[in-house]
Amino acid sequence: MFPTTIASLIDTVNKPLTPVHCPGCTKGQEYCEHKPGWFAPSEAEAAIKDGFGRRLMLDYWDADGQLPYTEVVSAPIIGYEGNVAPHDPLGICAFLTENKQCELHGKFKPLECGVACCKVKYDDSNVHFRMAQMWDSDEGRRVVALWKKANSMKGNSDD
């Protein structure tokens, strides 16, 4: 039993982050009601170029022993569209409609939201870390700069 548990954990941690479609699943909706998901840099870039830049939010990964402080473009918390996330970025996603649907679904749904599913098991804290790793890159920094330009901001969010 013990080796199966470890193998299962390794599979969960190393599973590719692949968006899923699970009709009737509410796990993604639960995320939307508590903390908006993060885009992959290429998804955020596409959303910015399609005119959504002023509606997105600049979130961050706080420095830890594995990654430096890393800025991340994400779906916004209500009231933070086109702005920097609060220190504790919890709240309802501004793209969650009254019908509990994602306004971006099918077009620019953030990868972190897209992997949320009741049937596909991911270690949620590992998913968030892996998303941060994508942003700790030249591509991620370039997309953050693009977001800042769209929102008339310069430099770090600490400026």
The gyration radius over C-alpha positions equals 16 Å
Overall number of structural domains: 1
Specify the helix fraction band: 25-40%
Assembly form of the protein: single chain
Distance separating the two termini: 52 Å
Main sheet characteristics: 2 strands, antiparallel
> How many separate helices?
6
Structural class: mainly alpha
* Helix/strand order: HHHEEHHH
**Beta strands, count:** 2
Question: If you had to describe this structure to a student in words, what would you say it looks like?
Answer:
The protein is mainly alpha-helical and 159 residues long. The protein has one domain (26-150). 38% of the residues lie in helices and 6% in strands. It contains six helices and two strands. The protein has helices at 2-14, 27-32, 41-52, 111-114, 124-135, 138-150, and strands spanning 57-61, 70-74. Strands 1-2 form a two-stranded antiparallel sheet. β1 and β2 form a beta hairpin. α3 (41-52) packs parallel to α6 (138-150). The longest helix has 13 residues, at 2-14.
Summarize this structure briefly:
The chain has helices at residues 2-14, 27-32, 41-52, 111-114, 124-135, 138-150, and strands at 57-61, 70-74.
List keywords for this structure.
mainly alpha, two-stranded antiparallel ribbon, 6% strand, 159 residues, single chain
